Amino acid sequence: xxxxxxxxxxxxxxxxxxxxxxxxxxxxxxxxxxxxxxxxxxxxxxxxxxxxxxxxxxxxxxxxxxxxxxxxxxxxxxxxxxxxxxxxxxxxxxxxxxxxxxxxxxxxxxxxxxxxxxxxxxxxxxxxxxxxxxxxxxxxxxxxxxxxxxxxxxxxxxxxxxxxxxxxxxxxxxxxxxxxxxxxxxxxxxxxxxxxxxxxxxxxxxxxxxxxxxxxxxxxxxxxxxxxxxxxxxxxxxxxxxxxxxxxxxxxxxxxxxxxxxxxxxxxxxxxxxxxxxxxxxxxxxxxxxxxxxxxxxxxxxxxxxxxxxxxxxxxxxxxxxxxxxxxxxxxxxxxxxxxxxxxxxxxxxxxxxxxxxxxxxxxxxxxxxxxxxxxxxxxxxxxxxxxxxxxxxxxxxxxxxxxxxxxxxxxxxxxxxxxxxxxxxxxxxxxxxxxxxxxxxxxxxxxxxxxxxxxxxxxxxxxxxxxxxxxxxxxxxxxxxxxxxxxxxxxxxxxxxxxxxxxxxxxxxxxxxxxxxxxxxxxxxxxxxxxxxxxxxxxxxxxxxxxxxxxxxxxxxxxxxxxxxxxxxxxxxxxxxxxxxxxxxxxxxxxxxxxxxxxxxxxxxxxxxxxxxxxxxxxxxxxxxxxxxxxxxxxxxxxxxxxxxxxxxxxxxxxxxxxxxxxxxxxxxxxxxxxxxxxxxxxxxxxxxxxxxxxxxxxxxxxxxxxxxxxxxxxxxxxxxxxxxxxxxxxxxxxxxxxxxxxxxxxxxxxxxxxxxxxxxxxxxxxxxxxxxxxxxxxxxxxxxxxxxxxxxxxxxxxxxxxxxxxxxxxxxxxxxxxxxxxxxxx
Length: 828
Ligand code: 26V
Hints:
Layout: H1 5-11, H2 20-35, H3 44-73, E1 77-81, H4 91-98, H5 101-110, H6 115-119, H7 131-145, E2 150-155, E3 163-167, E4 170-174, E5 187-198, E6 201-206, E7 212-217, E8 220-232, E9 239-249, H8 255-259, H9 263-274, H10 291-315, H11 322-325, E10 326-331, H12 338-349, H13 354-362, E11 365-368, E12 379-381, H14 382-388, H15 390-410, H16 415-421, E13 424-425, E14 430-432, H17 433-440, E15 441-446, H18 449-459, H19 461-466, E16 471-473, H20 480-486, H21 489-499, H22 520-545, E17 554-559, H23 568-585, E18 593-598, H24 606-623, E19 632-637, H25 642-648, E20 654-657, H26 669-675, E21 679-682, H27 688-695, E22 701-702, H28 707-715, H29 720-726, H30 728-738, H31 751-757, H32 766-784, H33 787-799, H34 806-818
Parallel strand pairs: 1-2, 1-10, 2-9, 10-11, 11-15, 15-16, 17-18, 17-20, 18-19, 20-21, 21-22
Antiparallel strand pairs: 3-4, 5-8, 6-7, 8-9, 12-14, 13-14
The structure holds ligand 26V.
């Protein structure tokens, strides 16, 4: 019998989440049946699982409704392919989306439990490195909230981003097993699996009509198994499915070995293939030629495309309609193999010819670029690709052949142009994944206005010329549901009380707060909320770093990945200068400050690790110096992740966004801070430029060279030594670091950092921007003494953040890139 929608409605009789009593009974039942513990002796951890288990059924039901609507309306879907989804904890998000937080809180309270304590039992799903992965999570939230038929595909890493401890001032990495206790949210799809093939060789033959077809044989196979997570949207009507692939061996035992009695060899193959989804690569720039990474990329791309095609073909018999019903967004080049994979599937499995397959392919994909750093642009050695993916390499050669033929026709005799545009770099014998993505996509976008402009002018000028209109900008955004409603409930309530709740799904409505920027009572409440959030941040700092900090001081925060281009080093130089000033003058003319750092370094990134150590050494010296007690404190908060951000961002006064102009594609932390009422000190880089446009130049501290000035400075032959010799305050700071002031037991510890700044040419212009940064910091000090003016500016920052909602970003993608519409729920 075919189940009808009403069958699903009947299920609702199970439990009414508006009813505290029913939730309570549901929790008890879930504890006994699902967790298997006696409620009498259950811990908060057990209650977390009981609650999640209870909700999971509800989420799954909602997912089915969504899916039925999508099929029913035969909608065009967008598939978001990303190697990373940094979703963080899920419990509170689901409760807020479903609007049942108060009821669940009350039910737990009746059982003697506190919801916040229970929620803290959940481990972060840290399936991403940083900005790119968190953006993907914000996007799923916006798609679900606004009922776009979206679908995420990624990898179910067994180990996500490593957890970080600081030992002797240095980063130590530990494996992070978010699945250790199992994840109560996952829905395992044992019936959904796809075979992914590697290696082998190609046999091509012609049929009677002379049509060529190829077979890929003698391959090593791995099975991709589907695990689904439901991303709820606000209001809870519609959800987006996030399907993560886990690698399983095709064979548990290699019987050849097993029969010879070699048990270990017999299971070895299993272990090898299952390492594919074991661990997230914890770097977000250079990583060249790692075979396992390439295999991960192809593994998730192939499984996802097979899945997408199968879903399409269930309903549509004609593959030529594919782009009408499907758009696939490539989150950076990591899934760029989707281009040759779709070609392969269409030709080798579904019998299409090259022209038709290519027509479908280039109308299906869109590609987002997230970085300008040359070392982060992916390329793969041809030899490795040929060994692992021989059929794809052939397809890439052929795409390239036709593409370059067209270029030669348009630009006869321009061999340089051909060399520059080729998908293959002949001099290094590598495949340029960005070129593959550009050629294979209908649209390419950057993630902030400046970034898109630089992409067009510096990274892809030739492509921009040959494909007018292909490059577009979609400035990033963040979801206000997580980054305000969930992480800062007191501020969210204050706002809702003042202007109503519409901002939760329409952030432009925050504009109504402008009228309250000077209102004394509103200002008082705003300040009181900030103070409370700082107290909470202070407690976290005390617990994690053993450093006591006072919430009355200015909280100055830089939390993000540790990278030379993000210039944590510039920040710490400024901190040392401040320290020197306070010590020398003995006059507390500078406002008391707490400088907070947090962030992980890629395990093999020597300089970034040195920077972490320097911050910790400096923190140690300053925090133990009675001369600056009460005036300056420095804290490095270990293991920065989504949950830590949720506490540190609301409790911040000054947001540090100080990358060298032209290096940070967008930044999204900058948006989260401003939305929570911090003022930004920053360069004219990435989305900072647009933040300034929105909040007004009086309400942000801008310093340093512009992207154009950076380029000119470098072209003119920048010499950092000149700055060093001409700025005595800066010279003192650098000399202290060089001479081991902060590490007397090993005075040369920071020579590599000092060398990079001086003899190394100071690639990121730390010295060039130092004085201007100091001046901006002085302006911060001056303004912070004027409580009313500071608060006014902070309120205006919140009021003018509307543009930076991921809702706006998703509406733009939907309209301008994806060509998709919102769904209506059939039974809504
Ligand atoms: C690159 C690589 C290359 C080697 C292998 C591992 C790996 C992992 C990730 C990446 C991508 C890094 C790019 C990235 O995260 N970009 C950030 O994207 C944010 C969202 O668009 C943006 O706000 C940040 O400015 C940008 O740095």
